[in-house]
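Schema walk-through. Below, the input block comes first and the output block second. Nothing else is stored per chain. Lengths vary across the set, and this one has 311 residues.
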Amino acid sequence: MSIKNSLNKIKDIVFTEGWFKKQFGIIDQRLDAMLAEQKRHGILINRLTNNWGQEFSRLDYSMPTWKGVLLHTSALRRSDQHEDARAIEEHVFARNGKCISVLHATRRPDEALRVMFEWMASAYNPCSVEWVFGIAEDDENSKVVLQCFRTVIVPGPNKGPVAAWNLAAKESSGKILVQMSDDWMPTLHWDKLIVDRMGDTSRETVLAVSDGYRKDDLLCMAILSRPYYERYGYIFWHEYFSMYSDNEFTLQAQRDGVIQQARDLLFTHDHPVRQGKQYDEFDSVYKLSNSSDQYRLGEEIFTRREPVIGR
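--- output ---
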């Protein structure tokens, strides 16, 4: 499909404030600034419409703003132009080094969007980051809210965040993979910090960072180089639903001798336990993942697999 037809179809949508505010969940005090960004990017959209004969791969997207790219690709997806949206994302990501793929498993789409905006706004170069949401097929709310964003859907009934993280990883292309959930808080220029501390991304490496609370060696945020991901073809063993998946990941990385210490890098894990909440105060998503059944299942899988992990 020509770029002219695609962009003409979205021009009204991309400049509709009501749709913009609803879809992105922007709080009022940020709306004016974001709309100004939207209008500025509209100059590029209009220029592309006038030069509709060009292919996406030849577009001058070398210096885009991440908000502008996000607005453009979201509007394309809303217009069912998914291939065009992916072409823009891939082009921008490649032009900016394909540094980091963030793999975000969620069943709280509104919260997930807030987290994405916070992390991307805190990034040194957000255009060097691709953000991939992973959701379950039975999660109708997430399918609606996240339909305009890069999202992969795990088929069948809910298989937990592990399946979503693994599928998002499979569909990613960044040199570094970062596991994400709805309760992690960024550090300013987190992307540059990760890239700098990871170093040579052609090596098999797992970066050990701090979550602000734990004092043990558990790697509760998986940050790994693509070669190490490709060694196994997954981040977490597929039998896990949630609990103990990080225990296996940690033991595997320890036995493989690939851990690079960076505990001075702080990414706060704002889990309700850290807020002093009891299990009865958790929301339904936390309750399912942190249930006694999931702990028991996870421990059984880990105990059975322990002799072969990383060997």
